[in-house]
Design brief:
It is a single chain. This protein has three domains: 51 residues, no CATH class; 213 residues, TIM Barrel, CATH 3.20.20; 66 residues, no CATH class. The chain is 48% helix and 14% strand. By secondary structure, it is α/β, with parallel strands linked by helices. Strands 1, 4, 5, 6, 9, 10, 11 and 12 form an eight-stranded parallel beta sheet that branches. It is globular. The structure holds zinc ion (ZN).
């Protein structure tokens, strides 16, 4: 109910010109680098509250919206070239996809070709071409499969996810992923064997095809003038948690593996889980990458470091994406932080505006 009301609110923000007013007020400049993950062509049974997979129809509508606003799509290579040569970055946009899901090639790529949308997909070469999803997606699958609950043993003790699952496996899976992300890499790998064993018990066909990684042949079939292939490490660890030798293997080793398979240089990198520090940035630079994207919200100017590019996440609904682009969503998010009162107020206000408009029509 609350979600439906929120959605209605974003629709009203667009239909009543609130987004237009905000776009004029905030007038954000700079290169917009968008971030997405998987794409699906129907409701996905095992989605998560962070909307990892969005419908291809929504993806198309959001790209069309940007084109209608006058944005020009460029590849990362072209954006970085313009940045280096001091050219204007205003109204430039690049679409990026993290984690290298097969669904990007199957559903998003044809839309990109048709509309002239350009971007980069960051792959995890350790799983490319296998039938093993990314470790975070394995956790999501296990949570959906074991809805009766389960327990995991960590060095700090046993955690039971029995009660929490309570009909909301998507939400629980995010909690489990967070627990694993906080562990030192060695401990994470060891503890993860429990998830792997539970994953083995999942019958074939239970995990949606959208969760599967892209294949090398699919990557070779892409036009790099439309969709470039970037590096997202060998196994998607939290890079600030690994020792230097592992960091180098994860970053340089992955870059070499992709370059060998595709026969092209790999210039672009994305920090898994948005985790990086000075040491990680230097490792990415010395491996030979020209750009790297983070999870930091915002646009990029000529002053933004090329190895710390900011991004804006695409949205599961067009209305919400429109409010995100105008800057209105950010204002609402900031204002609602202390509690839900502000939300209630805005929803009432938004609905009133619509009722008044309907009466006037
Ligand atoms: Zn990732």
């Amino acid at each position: 109910m609350l979600n439906a009301l929120k959605e209605k609110f974003w629709v009203v923000a667009e239909t009543h010109g609130i987004n237009r007013v905000f776009s004029g007020l905030t007038a954000e400049h700079g290169w917009l680098v968008l971030c997405g993950h998987g794409v699906c062509d129907g409701p996905l049974a095992m989605n998560t509250p962070d909307d990892r997979y969005i419908q291809v129809s929504t993806f198309r509508a959001e790209m069309e919206y940007l084109l209608a606003l006058g944005y020009t799509f460029v590849t990362l290579t072209e954006g970085i070239r313009r940045m280096r040569e001091g050219e204007s970055l205003d109204n430039l946009v690049t679409m990026t996809f993290d984690d290298g899901m097969h669904s990007v090639v199957e559903f998003a790529y044809p839309v990109m070709v048709a509309l002239g949308v350009k971007g980069c997909m960051y792959v995890v070469p350790g799983i490319v071409g296998t039938s093993r999803p990314l470790w975070t997606d394995m956790i999501i699958a296990v949570c959906w499969h074991r809805q009766g609950g389960f327990a995991l043993d960590f060095p700090q003790g046993r955690i039971s996810y029995a009660g929490e699952l309570n009909g909301n496996p998507g939400k629980t899976s995010l909690a489990v992923i967070q627990t694993f992300r906080k562990l030192p890499e060695e401990v994470r790998r060891k503890s993860f064997e429990q998830i792997e064993r539970m994953y083995e018990d999942i019958p074939e066909g239970f995990v949606p095809r959208e969760y599967m990684p892209v294949t090398w042949d699919e990557l070779r079939s892409l036009d790099p003038g439309i969709l470039e292939v970037g590096n997202h490490t060998l196994s998607h660890p939290k890079l600030v948690n690994v020792d230097h030798a592992t960091m180098q293997a994860e970053i340089s080793g992955a870059r070499r593996m992709i370059a060998d398979e595709l026969g092209t240089p790999v210039d672009h990198f994305c920090y898994p889980g948005g985790s990086y520090d000075r040491e990680v940035v230097e490792c990415v630079r010395s491996a030979g990458h020209a750009s790297a994207t983070t999870g930091v919200f915002g646009r990029n100017t000529r002053e933004t470091p090329a190895l710390e590019l900011r991004r804006v996440v695409i949205s599961p609904t067009l209305a919400r994406f429109q409010s995100r682009m105008s800057g209105f969503e950010r204002l609402v998010r900031t204002a609602m932080k202390p509690g839900r009162l502000f939300w209630t107020f805005l929803i009432v206000l938004g609905l009133q505006a619509e009722i008044l408009a309907a009466c006037a029509a």
